[in-house]
Amino acid sequence: MIRELTEKERLDAIDNAVAIIRRNLPEYTYKCQDTNTVDGIYKPIDNIEWTTGFWPGELWLAYLASDDEVFAHAAGIFVESFLERIKKHIAVDHHDMGFLYTPSCVAAYMLTHNAHAREAALMAADNLISRFQEKGQFIQAWGAMGADDNYRYIIDCMLNLPLLYWAEKETGKSIYREIALKHTKTCIANSFRPDYSSFHTFFMNKETGEPVRGETCQGYKADSSWARGQAWAVYGLALAYRHTGEKSYLDLFEHVSDYFMEKLPEDMIPYWDLIFTSGDEPRDSSSGSIVACGFLEAADSYEKNGEYEKARKYRKMAKELLKAIYDTCMVKKDEEGINGLVKHGTYSKKSPYNTCTPAGVDECVSWGDYYWLEALVRLGGSWKSWW
Ligand code: GLY
């Protein structure tokens, strides 16, 4: 039987998360959390990964959930680290500026008017638009600009674009929105197959700008649907609709969401690639939390549009996904030997057909912890999004 997360369970889950985050604070105030745990524990690292914005994001969420200033204070310390990172251009030659600077610095600016946070996030937005390729109309994800083996974008970038909508609002400069819209158009035109599954990465022709082919890096194979890629698409499209009011984005959101939900196993914890629907392959619980956030985002839009039935439908499905994670993946605050919030995430699983470096299989993953807590806080009803 499919059940929904209750309010009592939501509060219990927040209590667990805040307790674990509080316990982790001494270790990760001047150090960041690594991308994923190894045997349940996050290694403390410098601010060099694409994922280091998630832990400060968790601190802001913990602050909102608990009203305890200690979390805001620690999150404020990270703002300086993020300003230094973008000023010194440390490990920012890629597109993940939104993942890095939205939960750390846009959140800090929204909640505390921290001027350094605004400065850092705007510099990150400038860095992001500097990766726009006119030929093909996309933001290049990885590698040296124009490199033949990296003339492509990836579906994940949909979550980097809200930083550009924010930058447009802050500065009044339309270039940020224009690039976000052009990239979205290219992504929608190429990344989805007729059944609304998605390609992880997509190559464009460097000379003509024409679409070339879909490929995978972290999915099982080129024509399967990597669970997290599909999840980034779900949440990214819901956000794109909020920032633009473009109805076709919301229509596509529904189809892409349907595909995700149809491929879930009975226990509703996604396999790492949606090609798997049963058996012993590792799961990626983080995809469930990301999709739950996307559903809650879209539910707000439907409600504003007066489409109450759809708002109810997506809230209900979000609560079902969260209930599954609560029952089978949530770390309890008194559990020993583990310092993440959610088990059974997968960062990169090697397959015979993909090109990823294996990492973090069946572990806690930094964004899995973050989106779990974002979904829980969102469900409370008063959260103002920084995406
Ligand atoms: N954006 C990289 C990932 O989701 O693993």
UniProtKB/TrEMBL annotation:
| Native organism taxonomy | Bacteria, Pseudomonadati, Spirochaetota, Spirochaetia, Spirochaetales
Pfam families, from UniProt?
Glyco_hydro_88 (PF07470)
* Alphabetized InterPro entries for the sequence: 6-hairpin_glycosidase_sf, 6hp_glycosidase-like_sf, Glyco_hydro_88, UG_Glycosaminoglycan_Hydrolase
Detail which positions bind substrate: D96, D156, G214, T216, R228, W232, S348, S351
Protein name per the record: Glycoside hydrolase family 88 protein
Q: Does the keyword Hydrolase apply?
A: yes
List the Gene3D superfamilies hit by this protein, alphabetically. Answer: 1.50.10.10
The text of the family note is: Belongs to the glycosyl hydrolase 88 family.
User: What organism does this protein naturally occur in?
Assistant: Candidatus Ornithospirochaeta stercoravium
Record flagged with keyword Hydrolase:
yes
Provide the alphabetized UniProt keywords: Hydrolase
